Amino acid sequence: MTTLFYLAGILAIVATLLAITQRHAVHALLYLIVSLLAVAVEFFVLGAPFVAALEIMIYAGAIMVLFVFVVMMLNIAEHAMEVERGSLKPRNWLGPALLALVLLGELVYCTATTRGTPSLTGVTGPKQVGEALFGNYWIGVELASLLLMAGLVGAFHLGRHRIAKEEKHHVTSTDATRTDTRSDLVHAGSGGTSHAA
Amino acid sequence: MLGLAGLLTRRNLIFTLMSIEIMLNASGLAFVGAGARWAQPDGQVMFLFILAMAAAEVSVGLAFVLLFHKRQLALDVDAASEMRG
Question: Which of A87, A96, A88, A92 is nearest to A36 (CA)?
């Protein structure tokens, strides 16, 4: 179990180092996801399975998907097809795949050797965490909900400004095309009348 | 055990938001490690708070990055999409 802990720790450090030294944002995100998975293994070994599951679900699931969306939206503005063709080459996903393969080996080792949750220390289950969270730290829960609400409103405000601007731009462009078609019609009509005359 | 978490915290800032995520994660690892050391659930509670804060921070930060990128692109100043700190 100790070797498992240190192996996951070394893996997390290596993946984080590779993540912050990558030039391309998508590659850095791939390494960062591997690092988060390794940290989740650390939590599991430290006797916190609930937090490990939350780490995978929220960090590696939700937050990284947000990052990937934003990187993709930024890439659309630039040469998107070239970047996409480049990111399909095998040497780009080989490194994260190798690191994730080590994590998979740890998982197979755990399920093959031990029964139940492997941990260095005693397992602090979700029941104790929930009791502490809603017993002692209820004011913290309220403050976290307030913070999430503020984050939601802030993100909505930043996005709404842009959408309103785009709508205005869209309206003006359609007006411009409408005037263009009207002038075309006028020209065609005048041309037709001149031709008829 | 905690020296590892201390090592994880010393990551320099290149991609600013990603590094913030890494540092929050490392501090959460330190909290959970301390909670496991003294067999208390408080460390995991602290990690839940850190998680909520990271989610809020990342949503606002990414919205700001999108807005900033749009505005910089409109001003024709390129190479501002990756904000190197």
Answer: A96
Q: List alpha helices for B1-85, DSSP H.
A: 2-9, 16-37, 42-74
Residues of B whose CB is below 8 A from A136: 42, 45
Length in residues, chain B: 85
Spatial distance between the Cα atoms of A2 and B14, rounded to a whole number of angstroms: 32
Report ipTM (2 d.p.). 0.72
Find the residue in A nearest to B73 (Cα). Answer: A77
Q: Cα-flanking dihedrals φ and ψ of residue B26, to 5°?
A: -65, -40
The span from the CA of A4 to the CA of A178, in Å, is 68
Helices (H), chain A: 2-21, 25-45, 49-54, 64-77, 80-87, 90-113, 126-135, 138-196
Candidates A17, A42, A154; nearest CB to B29: A42
Radius of gyration over alpha carbons of chain A, in Å? 27
Question: Could A25 and B82 be called an inter-chain contact, meaning their C-beta atoms sit closer than 8 Å?
Answer: yes
Task: Label residue A139 exposed, middle or buried (CB < 10 Å: 0-12, 13-18, 19+).
Answer: exposed
- Closest Cα in chain A to B30: A43
Q: What is the pLDDT of residues A126-179, one digit of tens each?
A: 777 787 778 888 888 888 888 888 888 888 888 776 666 666 666 665 555 554
Contacts of A38 by beta carbon, 8 Å cutoff, 6+ apart? A8, A9, A11, A12, A15, A99, A103
Across the interface, whether the CB atoms of B29 and A43 are under 8 A apart is answered yes
- Please state the rounded mean pLDDT for residues B3-31: 66
